[in-house]
């Protein structure tokens, strides 16, 4: 049913970014339609970290963390993969109190399902339920006419278009013709999920977690540069492994999230690791490991063109160093909610003006997260990284000594962010 008194938004892609934008706009009073090329049959089996900057919008939208099996993330231990000596042990049990929202890890499928529920929930007090069209591939967007074109030949005109078609975006360059191409980073990730009970059943394996504060553990070696990170999800029933390594021949050439990898490949990467770390692969079944290549794109100067905006990986694809990619995409949903409340259908001048504010808020913040993430755990030790950040962001940065991933100043910089307040302040600034 058409709701003609409401402005219309078309969103390309129903990943974390597209769904978050849909929820925000729905709550701002928009009639939202999401076009998703897949049929959601191959949802991804892996976990994701959602720090307070992401859990804050999710909480505000009523995300059910309990149902989603979200698990507390209150520590980050980095251990030498060679001899198991502690490199750094960050404990942040007070993070929820300090930043106003919890730090969690969650299975991707559970996050996605929770977001979908918030988008389509039939309760009209939350706005018009979002319509998600599956198997609907968008082949073009024309920002000047606010029109998107589907593969079946249909064209749809909107008041606003949000492009959230992910890292392999075909549409990024339609919105920002100066955007560079996607580039391989040379790094890939093996990932798999292990039933927690299998780890608990073996005291040697479980010793890495027994009595420890819930959170990440990372085993690392510098040469070869391998980082094996493990954290829990789905109500502590499943352990997520991610093994970041230099891409091996034949890996990551396909545009696939689920390209299979063997235990042998993983153990070759872990060859120099302590036997106790290698043994962590024992409870993993052959056939359960996937490999994904990590991509990057040079930072964009703008995410906006007229009444069309880029969000999520389509705007800022990055390495997972700071758990930032999905989280800042969720933030963008909160920003959209504030900036696009009270808009009259067809008021293109106001919509374009609000998108300019969106751009002013998102380009510095998202490019900061992306450049830091792509620079790795010691990014700020490289003066070139800071120079690149300064092209977009002029706020405070941690000193290089305190800048490692999840150290306190870095947590303050990346995770202490209230998207709603930031957008309200920016909007007020234009109305004073
Ligand atoms: C190994 C790894 C670990 C990560 N860990 C974290 C973490 O801990 N925390 C965190 O915040 N982030 C993390 N990230 C980043 C995070 O996963 C991404 O930033 C996030 O999933 C991007 O969401 P998206 O919606 O932009 O893109 P996607 O999830 O790729 O969604 C894009 C959607 O668009 C659809 N689509 C594509 N083209 C079209 C089209 N033409 N028409 C219609 N639909 C289309 C696709 O089918 C897809 O559903 C990690 C990333 C990786 C690779």
UniProtKB/TrEMBL annotation:
Signal peptide: none annotated. It comes from the Eukaryota. Residues 11-172 form the FAD/NAD(P)-binding domain. Keywords: Monooxygenase, Oxidoreductase. The lineage of its organism: Eukaryota, Fungi, Dikarya, Ascomycota, Pezizomycotina. InterPro entries: FAD-dep_Monooxygenase_BioMet, FAD/NAD-bd_sf, FAD/NAD-binding_dom. This is FAD/NAD(P)-binding domain-containing protein. PANTHER family: FAD-BINDING DOMAIN-CONTAINING PROTEIN-RELATED, MONOOXYGENASE. GO terms for molecular function: monooxygenase activity. It holds the Pfam family Pyr_redox_2. It comes from Gomphillus americanus. Belongs to the paxM FAD-dependent monooxygenase family. The keyword Oxidoreductase applies.
